Every structure is written in C-alpha cells, then in structure tokens.
Amino acid sequence: MDWKEISGKTVDEAITVAMLELGVAIENMEYEVIEKETSGFLGMFGKPARIRARVKVTVEGTTKKFLEDVIRAMGVEAKAIVNYDQENSTIEINIDGDEMGVLIGKRGQTLDSLQYLISLVVNKNSENYIKVKLDTENYRARRKETLENLAKNIAYKVKRTRKPVSLEPMNPYERRIIHSALQNDKFVETYSEGEEPYRKVVINVKKGVYEKRYSSNYNNNNHSNNSNHSNNNNNSNNNSTSGGNNRNSSGYRKDNAVTNKNYKKPYNTSKSGFNKNYSADYKKDYEKYKESKEKKEETVETM
User: Fold this and answer.
1) How many domains are contained in the chain?
2) Position 97 confidence tier, pLDDT thresholds 50, 70, 90
C-alpha cells in the first residue's frame, strides 16, 4: 500500500488522524515522522507536525484486502476470516456470507481458482512458501466425504468386473483424497495419468491378486479330492479285508446278514466249494437249445 501524508498540530494528533483515515489500529500501521510541530514566535507562524503512514504489510492484511476486493468485484457481499500459522507456514481463510454458491462454482472450480490467486499474491514477496486453504460453508469437508464414497463404490465395481475405471479430471488435492481412501485396499490400486488440468485417477485391479487366489483354491480342491479318494480306497480295502476274514470254506460270509454292500460273491465258487467249469456247462446248454429249436422246425414242416 502507498504511503499517505497526514498532518496535525502535534505528532500524536497526526498519528490519531492517520489511524482514523486508514481504519486500523496503531499496531497494524506503519508511520514515519516527516516534520515535528514548531510553536513559532509568540505563538505565531507555527508549523504543524507532518507524518506519512500506511497499513502495515502483513500476510493476514494482504490476504484479507485482496480477497474482499475480488469478492466485491464479483457482486457478492461477504467477509473473509483469515488465520495465519507462521510456524507451519499455512494460512486458512473462511468466507462468511450469503449466496456462497457463486463463490464455490461447479464442483468447487471457482473456489479453487480464488485459492490459487490468493496463493500467488501471498507468496509473491514471501521468503518461505505459504500453503493457502480457502473454504466456505464447510464445502471442503463435504467434498472430501463425497470423493471417499465415490472411491469405494468404484473400487467395488472394479473388483466385480476386473476392468480399470478412469475418474473425471481432478485437482491435486482431490486426487490425493482418492489415493488415500484406497491405499489400504488389498485388491485394487490407484495411479494418476494425463497432464494438468486434465490429469485423472485410474482405479485398477492389482496385478497377480486373482491369479494367486485361484491357484490356491485349485490346490486346495485338488488336495481335498485326493484325500477323499484315498479315504475311499482305504475304506474299500478295509471292507474287502474284513469280508475275506469272515468267509467260510464255501466262500460265503459266516453270518447270514450281509452288512457290507461292497461284498461280492466269488464268481467261480459253487455251493460245494469246488470251482465250476462254466465253459462246459455253456456248451451243454447251447446243445439243448439247438435240439429244441430243430424239433420246433420239424413240427412246423409236418404241419
């Protein structure tokens, strides 16, 4: 801010006039004494005191004045509340007023633009970089919650379809919210692609996750099938062993009630315990069948 020259009967009076004209307290004002008052000869021909003063250049003052001037130029009546943390080099600004939707804009684009302009003004003459955060009507917190829910819903879709999904272009602050929301997810990963201002977040399935799951399930199924097969073999062996031990000399079980379903009567054992010659029996039966057939044909011819 430019210096302003102010005069008064005394230096103290000139300082008071300067505070009233600049509208600030003395701790927020810088002043220099140009000329002190003189009484003159016999109280005549005296000169008043002259000083020059200006508003002290501070981060809070510069930010507040610039933002309120811009808001006023946009035709919005609002008040800026500025909190500067010198230790952490951060400045938080909250705008209080009516019709804040004009300052927020579509998806916070206007608010982000104002924040960027303030950052340029604040860091113009600053030795250390000062981080600026501009908010109104708790918009930043509400937007963060919306983005976190969006990230979880898209991650569920990616797990179900196993196809990557690209989100809309976002600023760095909103992209960090998406990355933070899914950084502990075991099945999906996030990365950014593209150039500003069209840089966007992509959510995709982690490489090798489903392959490992399927291979482990396949091995478990094979192991269970092999174990079931071995158990069945053991049971059949036990049953055959027990059935063989309980048979008598004729080949049947000692007890009349057959409880083992897998038990089968020996094929070539007769009731007497001797093996039958099934090939000879088959020949005899076939010869009888042939004789009966020839007799039927003879009777038919005689008729």
Assistant:
1) 3
2) confident
